[in-house]
Design a protein that fits this description.
Layout (H helix, E strand, L loop, with lengths): L7 H4 L10 E10 L2 E11 L4 E5 L6 H8 L7 E6 L2 E2 L5 H10 L1 E4 L11 H11 L4 H14 L15 H13 L5 E5 L7 H18 L2 E6 L2 H4 L4 E6 L2 E6 L2
Parallel strand pairs: 3-8, 3-9, 6-7, 7-8
Antiparallel strand pairs: 1-2, 1-4, 4-5, 9-10
């Protein structure tokens, strides 16, 4: 899969000053007359797990969508490996989301008509990988997420915790550099939620994948390296528990 190379100035940066993998600076975004972000900033280093915390309506999901290139901010800049996302074409941003970015949503958002194995293989198939190779890699990730036994089943035939582990496998199967996880345990009970978080963060750390973890729960944020708090569309950094 084609990936964005770092910009020349990023690649030539001082060895002692490693630039962030992903950086948002002074983001402003409104929906109609309603402000969502009012100067939000965030840096993400390679392999780092950052929890984005805040109450409902604080702007944390909008911040995630801007970081992932899904939403264009009205002002400010989002740079990935030195590339300004706003300067990329829609097609280039879409390709980026298939190659470098992975996503885990609150309700998994698996394709109900496909088996769990086919769901995990789907991003690889969209990138042009042949079915056999894609499903072999997908099966490996289902094993790592401890849900290989549901490979042939569809979403409606598995538990919520199993479906969310399948969603995590789908997010990681392309070997992304960043995973965006938006309330990934919000629809699960505490036991299943803890298991999903442990598997997600352990797998990401083993693969050197960075995570932006949106949550309003301190127990979820505890899995991160540090926290960024969003309130009224603005950000501040706090130490992780």
């Amino acid at each position: 899969m084609t990936r964005l190379a770092p910009q020349p100035e990023t690649a030539a940066a001082d060895a002692g000053a490693v630039p962030p993998l992903l950086a948002a600076v002074d983001l402003v975004k409104s929906f109609g007359s309603t402000p969502a972000l009012q100067g939000a900033s965030l840096d993400l280093a390679a392999g780092e797990i950052v929890a984005v915390m805040g109450p409902s309506g604080s702007g944390k999901s909008t911040l995630l969508h801007c970081l992932a290139g899904i939403v264009r901010p009205d002002a400010g800049r989002v740079a990935y490996r030195g590339h300004d996302l706003a300067r990329l074409s829609d097609r280039a941003r879409s390709t980026l989301r298939r190659s470098d970015f992975g996503f885990v949503f609150q309700f998994g958002q698996l394709v109900p008509e496909l088996s769990c194995l086919e769901n995990v293989a789907l991003p690889l198939r969209l990138a042009g990988l042949r079915r056999g190779a894609a499903e072999e890699r997908a099966r490996g990730w289902l094993e790592r997420l401890e849900v290989a036994d549901v490979a042939g089943q569809r979403q409606g035939d598995v538990s919520g915790g199993q479906a969310q582990r399948v969603a995590v496998a789908r997010a990681l199967v392309t070997d992304p550099r960043v995973v965006f996880a938006d309330e990934p345990t919000g629809a699960l009970d505490s036991l299943n939620g803890e298991r999903v978080l442990l598997l997600l963060t352990d797998a990401a750390r083993a693969a050197g994948v960075a995570i932006v973890l949106v949550t309003h729960e301190p127990r979820v944020a505890a899995y991160a390296d540090r926290e960024v708090v969003v309130r009224d569309g603005r950000t501040r950094t706090a130490s992780a528990p």
